[in-house]
């Protein structure tokens, strides 16, 4: 197959189509993992709710109780976290669809550029969501004595633990998306440079 | 020049060197702006401090006063904001140095790949820092009644305003860095594809 390509350079790759297919597969696996992690982060955070009954006072021997709920909707950073991760999960699903349908669709060189740029935008959004949630979670866990904001994780422990799990999912998801985007950038160059046997020194300096 | 290049394709660009130089200049200008914005965000946040004296009680006619300071170091999200923006400012400065020294250094095709990947990582970090700071600032401004965290911006208004200005600088900086990285990605493809007159349909699908 490789020698066939060498005779007809218009058809496609002439170098290492096996390597290209292998990288393709690795990217698809990473993409599936990133999709699952961001979906997991979305669902765990969106379904995170803890209701607890506290004894606020005792009148004689009758305890006076109050029921409080901790929900993700109460914290704007967690709402952004859910939106950002849901968006990233949808993005990863769509990009998987593009990758699998790619050979059938005539994309005319549009996808190799649009996919990493969309990845980049999604990395920025999910990174923002995860980071905001992490610092809000840290505030919930430790409080801030300077601002007189008391910790709440001593009262809503399982709420905080589930939130923390969602944040870890999201952070690993961001890391995978950064790797996917970086590999995409390297592949664009390697594909065109390798295909045409360009010397490696180049004047493309962004 | 353009026709000369056509005869000797090994030398360099054969297509639109003027366009390439123009895009180069635009990227450099955007890079300088991104550097200034992230530097501004770093300095404004790092120097942000407000000291205020409150009357906490009155004994007879003698007021009892307490002096409180609001500093960025008191909030972990703001510390991360300063580190992230300082890092991005340094990155942009180094990338400017690479861009200006690029023609003299023999970078052997390394820079065109490393620069957008480093840009990507920095976009993720600054986006995280800016987003965490924005949500912490929103908490300071509005408080959170569910967690019983009171707003503090009514007491430290100029501290909050300066912090907000730093956040706007940082957010515009991230936006510019996303544009720079996206343009870099498109340029890698256009450079190699244009140089070798490749047909636009390709099978590089990340």
TrEMBL record, chains A, B:
Localization, UniProt: Cell membrane
Indicate the segments forming the Casparian strip membrane protein domain, all copies.
22-175
Key words, A-Z? Cell membrane, Membrane, Transmembrane, Transmembrane helix
Write the lineage as a comma-separated list: Eukaryota, Viridiplantae, Streptophyta, Embryophyta, Tracheophyta
Similarity comment: family membership: Belongs to the Casparian strip membrane proteins (CASP) family.
**Which InterPro entries does the annotation name?**
CASP/CASPL, CASP_dom, CASPL
GO CC annotations, alphabetized: plasma membrane
Organism of derivation: Salvia splendens
Give the transmembrane region(s). 29-47, 77-101, 113-136, 165-188
Subunit record text: Homodimer and heterodimers.
Principal location listed in the UniProt entry = membrane
Domain of life where this protein originates: Eukaryota
Task: Name the chain's protein.
Answer: CASP-like protein
Membrane topology field: Multi-pass membrane protein
